[in-house]
Amino acid sequence: MKIPNYPKKDGDRLRYVRYPVQVNEAYNAKSPLQIPLDKWVAVDVLQEGYRPLLSPNPFESFEKCKKACDVSNRVVGFTEEECINVVAQSMANSLSGENEVLEYIP
Fold first, then answer.
1. Where are the beta strands (DSSP E) in the chain?
2. Residue of 38, 27, 32 whose CA lies nearest to 60
3. What digits encode the pLDDT tens for the residues 54-89?
4. Which domain holds residue 70?
5. Is residue 55 part of a domain?
6. Would residue 102 count as lying in a domain?
7. Phi first, then psi: what are they for 8, rounded to 5°?
8. Is 18 exposed, middle or buried (0-12, 13-18, 19+ CB in 10 A)?
9. What is the number of structural domains in the chain?
10. Average pLDDT over residues 13-36
11. To the nearest 10°, the Cα dihedral for 40, 44, 50, 53?
12. How remote is the C-alpha of 37 from its chain's centroid?
């Protein structure tokens, strides 16, 4: 199911919810930069799955990465409820197809 009004348009730019994922081999295969395994990085949540950022900033913990994602999401204008809904629907969309799954960590 398509996520309505997503991504947000900001002039000519598209804005995506950011969410933390733990780096693993699958992430590094998609990423333009190789990040040490077990670090946490923000990704753009897509309609199905996620996209690594061009210049990811690795974090030591989920909590620190989540805090950075929360700040970014607020600056762009996403509410916490919108973020939760986008992540949940993206996961559901990924599970319904053959795309990569965005791991959800509460």
1. 8-10, 13-15, 18-22, 40-45, 50-52
2. 38
3. 899 999 999 999 999 999 999 999 999 999 999 999
4. 8-96
5. yes
6. no
7. -75, 145
8. buried
9. 1
10. 93
11. -60
12. 17
CA distance 63 to 58: 12
What gap in Å lies between CA 75 and CA 90, rounded to an integer? Answer: 21
- Nearby residues of 71 by Cβ (< 8 Å), 6 or more positions away: none
57 domain residue, yes or no: yes
- With a CB cutoff of 8 Å and minimum separation 6, the contacts of 35 are 23, 27, 28, 41, 56, 58
Q: Which two tokens stand for residue 8?
A: 């947000």
Residue 2 lies in a domain: no
Q: What is the C-alpha to C-alpha distance for residues 24 and 49, in angstroms, rounded to an integer? A: 15
